[in-house]
Write a structure and sequence with these properties.
By secondary structure, this protein is mainly alpha-helical. Helix content is 43%, strand content 5%. The chain has two domains: 312 residues, Serine Threonine Protein Phosphatase 5, Tetratricopeptide repeat (Alpha Horseshoe); 113 residues, no CATH class.
Length: 541
């Protein structure tokens, strides 16, 4: 095994050809230990060994798009998350819309690292002598990953350089201007279409976690919704509702966030951290991934092994409690609320035993342990049953491990939970959105019923398409709290003025600072300095 991992690491370095921490670095640096491309790209085994390097770019959990320091704060910059005052500037500035092109972050570079690795792979795989069907499958896989990286670039930055060949093959090398956002989305759709055509419906146990045809269709459908091509979006997403696809909602919502229930029937695509599936395997072993899935450390409160950097906002709590379950239900509130938040059940309802977590800590103890940071400023939660609300984030903590310090990233056993990047519930809500836009209200109602049924909510009818869209927006808010969805759902639904008013009404931190330019993140100044042809997004100039 050690020999295999060592070999894989060498081959990964060979496949990369270029590497680095930001766009400038990975475009310009050449691995001096790498043989020429003609030497490496000669066997199927070498080609297969190069694939993990493309996956691994997204796994930098301290830095990078899903990183706790440089990603989670940009993903969750909407009104459902409260950021603790006095934490890192690179967390605080995007959350309060005071960020500038000079705000420290590395999302842009990490995403382009993945793009360039995919480009190197796609350039060379065509020359490898191997079974054509297997070659096409690998082309589909690399196309899927490039499409995913460009999806995140387009959604976050808008106009960006569109690179479809290795940087070394560009006529101007590292110097390349930004393409219009619309052109980037065209490439995203083309890449996911290629992936859909070539990827298999299922994977073997040995290939667990690799991209599938269903994942490609899901991302393609999402891209079409984002670009408002609702006719094709509904068609693509509808395919995932029937055979040969077997996706479904997990009966228990919390099973989407536990290490013990990874790769379940609701999972469309996961970022793999569990060494059982990914250590030195499909998902690579880049140095920055060694800390694994560290969000529990950042979300968990003091005394649980966490650093306590976020709380639920008052508005997300308000929206969860706005619709209670029917009389006689086993819980008072939406079932998803019990996975999303920690709270003392007896404060607000009867019939439930108060929980105990992290070495049988009561909620009262967890709340008191968090008091130091809460004193810097905390949400004003709704009063329920005459008692002031008290809530902490439960989702993405290691709540299912009732042991002390379960949220500490310094214990490897706490780092193995995969991140569900795309769940079937999102397929249903995207399909509902597209169906509404197409006037297919019956199909949308069926999707919404499945979401609401899992949450334990009563049957509901809607008077018109506008009412149904409001329900889609609300269910997205509740279903994907703290999963990085809310900002983008609002952005594609509302114009700037309405979105700002929502932030103001919901007491979003920094709502007064929100401008039209904040629909996008600015391209980092370091990238502009390194690439003299790149243009900052027009709204940020």
């Amino acid at each position: 095994m050690k020999t295999y991992i060592k070999k894989l690491s060498v081959l990964a370095a060979i496949a990369l050809l270029v590497s680095g921490c930001n766009e400038k670095d990975f475009l310009n640096k050449v691995n001096p230990n790498s043989p020429v491309e003609q030497t490496f790209w000669t066997t199927e085994a070498n080609a297969v060994s190069a694939m993990p390097t493309i996956y691994s770019s997204i796994r930098g959990q301290m830095y990078g798009y899903y990183g706790a320091y440089t990603g989670w704060h940009t993903m969750n910059r909407a009104d459902d998350v409260w950021f603790i005052l006095g934490e890192e500037v690179l967390n605080w500035e995007p959350a309060t819309f005071t960020n500038t092109p000079s705000t420290s972050e590395s999302d842009f570079g990490r995403l382009y690292m993945g793009v360039n690795r995919a480009n190197v792979f796609l350039k060379n795989i065509v020359n490898v002598k191997m079974d054509e069907s297997k070659k096409n499958e690998l082309i589909g896989e690399a196309s899927f990953l490039r499409g995913m990286y460009y999806f995140l670039l387009a959604a976050n930055f808008g106009d960006v350089p569109l690179r479809t060949v290795p940087a070394g093959d560009e006529p101007d090398g590292a110097m390349k201007g930004s393409s219009p956002e619309a052109d980037v989305w065209k490439q995203v759709i083309a890449d996911f279409t290629t992936a859909k055509n070539y990827l298999p419906v299922t994977r073997t146990a040995a290939e667990a976690g690799r991209a599938t045809k269903g994942a490609a269709i899901a991302f393609l459908g999402k891209s079409l919704v984002y670009t408002k091509d609702y006719q094709n979006a509904e068609k693509e997403l509808a395919a995932l509702l029937t055979a040969p696809y077997t996706y479904d909602l997990m009966p228990s919502f919390e099973d989407n966030f536990k290490e013990t229930t990874e790769l379940n029937k609701e999972s469309v695509f996961e970022i793999m951290y569990n060494g059982k599936y990914s250590n030195g395997g499909t998902w690579g072993n880049d140095g920055s991934t060694t800390q694994g899935f560290v969000i529990p450390n950042f979300a968990g409160s003091a005394g649980t092994g966490g650093w306590f950097k976020w709380m639920p906002s008052a508005s997300i709590v308000r929206d969860f409690i706005a619709e209670e379950r029917p009389a006689g239900s086993d819980t008072r509130f939406d079932k998803r609320m019990y996975t999303s938040f920690f709270w003392k059940y007896s404060d607000f309802e009867t019939g439930l035993t108060d929980g105990a977590w992290f070495g049988n800590q009561s909620f009262d103890l967890m709340w008191d342990n968090a008091s130091g940071k809460r004193q810097r400023g905390e949400p004003v939660y709704p009063v329920i049953n005459g008692k002031k609300g008290r809530f902490l984030i439960k989702k993405y903590t290691n709540f299912y491990k009732n042991v002390p310090d379960a949220n500490s990233m310094y214990d490897q056993s706490n780092q193995n939970n995969n991140l569900r990047m795309f769940r079937f519930s999102e397929v249903l809500l995207l399909h509902a959105e597209a169906a509404i836009k197409n006037g297919n209200l019956g199909a949308a109602a069926a999707d919404l019923k499945r979401i609401r049924d899992r949450a334990g909510l009563a049957n509901k009818t809607w008077n018109n398409a506008d009412d149904m869209m409001k329900e889609v927006i609300k269910q997205n808010e509740l279903e994907f709290f703290f999963e990085g969805h809310r900002f983008f759902d609002l952005k594609r639904t509302y114009p700037y003025a309405q979105m700002k008013q929502i932030f103001v009404d919901n007491a979003k931190q920094g709502a007064e600072n929100f401008q039209a330019k904040h629909f996008y993140l600015p391209i980092p100044q370091g990238e502009i300095n390194a690439n003299t042809k790149i243009q900052q997004h027009p709204l940020w100039r």
